[in-house]
């Protein structure tokens, strides 16, 4: 919970009346067969949920995705899942920059910022999550900023971004001693960076740089 982006998504998802968003964290354990991870709020196994949404911020998270799915008893590959399993989605800087390494594992990948993608995505999910998975994937693939590896036609997916940050206040939703920066109240004052360093995800995944009004 030291990542302010996670606070923002958690608050944004729970602001929709038709959504209940819980959190789950992966903890490394010294055992050959790790215990299935449970959601923090209701202590339910992840396989109980309709949708699992991963925030991928670092390349090393890739390995954790596989371990979480495996420990939860969920088939690893999108091609092996159907409507009996949670829909597995992901977003975050690594997905925006290059979704291909993880594409076999995910049903859909969000190319851009959640504030710009969720308003079109959530009604489709709400309507289609209980139906046939193939139909849901086709509908998701037609939305801006959504990459569905199983049905992708090759047409480039355009990255989506929030044009006015003032519409989406971002600050800490939880203060906890269980994380770094947990006793600080974090506020997003700007997004992106215009320094232009070629190696930097912030520069490339969150263009253009935007400020909030004071
Ligand atoms: S490394 Fe990234 S965040 Fe830092 S100055 Fe360069 S572009 Fe900006």
From TrEMBL:
Per the database record, which ranges form the Radical SAM domain?
Answer: 5-149
- Give the molecular function GO annotations: catalytic activity; iron-sulfur cluster binding
Q: Which Pfam families match?
A: Radical_SAM_N2
Stored PANTHER family: RADICAL SAM DOMAIN PROTEIN, SLL1084 PROTEIN
**Name the record gives this protein:** Radical SAM domain-containing protein
In its UniProt entry, the species of origin is given as: marine sediment metagenome
